[in-house]
Each structure stands twice: as structure tokens, then as C-alpha cells.
């Protein structure tokens, strides 16, 4: 894209700047529209599983319901508690929303179709996703209210617990792919099993890692059955209790952007990204970004399915799963995968 703007007579610096801004907008604007649509899809899936109709009034088939909700919160008054730390209280949702968008910079939508094709893309995603907890902690502390503060403590413990196991799971993927570059990780999955199946998920050593990564994704995004940070029966609404208007909407958008990010990571790291499921020539006729989108939508359906059907964990169960099950198992698989690769690929 930089070369295109240079051909219009721009200097390299200006061409790079304009190309980068255009790339950011090409990701951010469709993502925001996609968030509005998946909120609608989420509610429709829950309704179908509960034998209800879901949103069906605003627009054809209720498609404009999310936009009506957005207009409603935009017109509401932003109420700031008198005892709250005003600056941090207002910055917290901005942090959550911004961090949710930043990680998309290294997600490849097709071969070479990525905003920042950096060699440490996976480390960047891990670092950015770790920052998400700060928005929650800042909201809980700045609200100067008991329930949001309890929620912030829960969130910090929960996200740190599952990020540890996610880190070990990603080490297994990096060991097998031999790179941190997200594009190259996808390419390493081409014909990975029997020369037919595209995806690390078909590898017997990496399939358990995908199952753990999927469950950890639910915990990391605070989706049911791991939504202990906003459990209505215990914490009213958790760290969001004191928020209203667009500040609340920013948390809502950030939460769903994070859900889509985790769906994209499941797709990219284990299901071949933009590659078709099978390494058969005629399947490559379908554009890569279409395969990527279909896989992301499949994972979002799984997220909604789990939320609609699985009861909430107790907090002690949540911690036990993260520290006593996922951590030792993922660490054991790091040893297993590295040992297997040393014996087979490097013939040590």
C-alpha cells in the first residue's frame, strides 16, 4: 500500500503514514461493525437455545437492534460517583477498548494481509492481551465501591492464572512452527497431518493444547462459565456496576472485540488461519479471508453455545482448574513436544 501512495507523488514518509492509517481503518471499522453484528448473533443464539425469538423488532429480523442500543447509551447521561477517582474512572473503559483493538495489528486475514507482519507477532499478542486486566482493575479501584473492587481482585487473579497456562500452550505452538511470526505459523500448518489436513489441531500432541487454549480463552475473556468478575448474583454487575452511558458501552465493545480476538487466535494458531481445512487444490479457489472469517464465526458460535448451556463455576473451581490442572498439564506438554521434536526433527 505504501508503494501505491508513492506512485501518487508522495514522499516515502508520508506514503507510509497514510498507508498505515488506512490499514488501521480497514481493520478497526469492519471490526466495530462486526462487534455490533455478533452482539445481535449472540442474543439470537441464546434465544434459540432457550426456545425464544430474540431481537426481532428493530430493522429486518432485528438486525438493527445493536445500533438502537448504541444510540440509547450515547444519549444517556454519564454519571460519575461523587467519591470516585474521576480521572482513572473515565480512563479505565478507554484502556479496555483500546487494548482490545491493538492486538488485531498482527492477526493475518490472508497470506500477507496483516497490518504489522513482525517476527515477534505472537509475543506482541500475549503482551497486549495481558494489558486488558488493567482496565478492569482501574475501574474497580476508581469506583470506590465494594462490589466493583471485589470484581477487580477476582479479575486480576483469574486473568493472571490463565495467562500462565496460555503462555505454555503458545510455547508448544512456537516449538512446532519454529517461529513467532503469525503468518509463518499459519504456513507451517499447511498439509501438517498426513499431507492432507491443514492445522495443528489435527496433531495428536497439539490437540490437547487446543482444548486447553479454547477453555483458557473463555476464562481470559471472562465469558461463561468463567464470568465470575461480573456475577450478578454475587457482585451486582462487577466492575461495571458504577458505569453508564458510553463508558459502559466501551466496556461492552471491548469485551466482544476480545472475544473475536480469541476466536481469531484459535483459528490462526490451531485451525490453519486462512487455509482451507484440507490441502486439496480446488478448496483454494475460495479466498483465504473467507476461510478465516468462517472459522472465526464457528468459534464465536462455540463461545455463545457454551454461554447458553454451561452453568457458572464457583471461584475455587476456577482457580483449581487454572493452577492444579492446566498449569502442570501444559508444562508437561512443553516437555513432551520439545522432546519429540528433538528426537525426530533434530535427531539428537
Number of strands: 0
Indicate the structural class: mainly alpha
Arithmetic mean of pLDDT: 87
The quaternary state of the protein chains shown equals: single chain
Q: Could you please describe the fold and organization of this structure?
A:
The chain is an all-alpha fold. The chain folds into two domains: 1-75; 79-346, no CATH class. It is 66% helix and 0% strand. The chain has helices spanning 2-7, 12-49, 65-75, 86-102, 121-142, 146-177, 182-187, 207-220, 232-235, 245-270, 288-309, 315-344. Helix 2 crosses helix 10 (245-270). The longest helix has 38 residues, at 12-49. It is found in: Cell membrane; Membrane. It is a multi-pass membrane protein. Belongs to the complex I subunit 1 family.
